[in-house]
Amino acid sequence: MGVEDYHVIELVGEGSFGRVYKGRRKYTGQTVAMKFIMKQGKSDKDIHSLRQENEILRKLKHGNIIEMLDSFETHGSFVLSLSSPK
User: Which of 34, 48, 69, 79 is spaced 20 to 30 A from 20 at the CA atom?
Assistant: First the structure.
């Protein structure tokens, strides 16, 4: 999957590392939170750490933690697709 598999609907919030958008999976209609973490200004070590954190998040399954549905990279960002809070 990639960003082309989603409709980005609207900006929800913004922080020092990136932005969170409300999104929708094109093929299922599922509403998601899409977190875009900018690569610009990050060192190679930071990029490596982000990739490791993504792998840890992918494996986490707990009722009190928002589930990561998908993650991928674009040229300028890491993108996390997260289950939308109820």
Answer: 48
